[in-house]
Amino acid sequence: MEGRRMDFTNLLFSPNGRIGQKEYWVGIMILILGNILAGMIPILGTLLWLGLIYVGVCVYGKRLHDIGKTAWIHALVWGVSIALTVLAFAFAGGSLLAAGLNNNEVDAAAILAASGSLLLFTGLGSLIWLGYTIWLGVIAGEAGSNRFGQPPVRTISSEPVDSTPPGGNEPPAA
């Protein structure tokens, strides 16, 4: 099978152009592994995570370009995610404040409400990211050129295709 080599520099660091589904999923796996690694490194992990935000913009943006959409859709998903996180902490903070104002007694209901709001809003944000990521990975790109450039080069096999039907039913020799 003859194919081209994947250009990781372009995939991860260039916001321009288009990428196909295969390159997108490779980029997503790199982002997932990078985020796991960032979570394991105390201080430098934060810097790595900030760099991964840019890599994510490049990977998601080029995939959006391939389906003919603007990469600003990615900013919309980030905005919704941030808004849900703010709501989660606002509701949780209010519940914990109510628990603290209860004459120094532990208010289990308020603590449960805080936990529930954190789970609800952060879970909803995670579901949105998961759905968005899968949607971009399964939707077909535009076949021809679009305003973001030429379609990504698809790897095509140069091996001949065997046209013998299953079961070995070959025509009789003449």
Distance between the termini: 34 Å
Which term fits the overall shape? Answer: elongated
User: Largest beta sheet, briefly?
Assistant: none
| % residues in beta strands | under 5%
Q: Are there runs of 5+ residues with pLDDT below 50, and where?
A: none
Average pLDDT taken over every residue: 85
InterPro entries: DUF805
Region (Disordered): 152-174
Transmembrane segments: 24-55, 76-99, 111-138
Protein name: DUF805 domain-containing protein
Structure notes:
This is DUF805 domain-containing protein. The structure is a single chain. The chain is mainly alpha-helical. It has 2 domains: 8-66; 69-142. 63% of the residues lie in helices and 0% in strands. The chain has helices at residues 8-13, 21-40, 44-66, 72-100, 108-138. α2 (21-40) packs antiparallel against α3 and α4 (72-100) packs antiparallel against α5 (108-138). The protein starts with 7 loop residues before the first helix and ends in a 36-residue tail after the last helix.
Which properties best describe this structure?
5 helices; mainly alpha; 174 residues
Q: Secondary structure elements and their pairing?
A:
Blueprint: H1 8-13, H2 21-40, H3 44-66, H4 72-100, H5 108-138
Helix pairs in contact: 2-3, 2-5, 3-4, 4-5
Brief synopsis:
One of its GO terms (cellular component) is plasma membrane. With 174 residues, this protein is mostly helical.
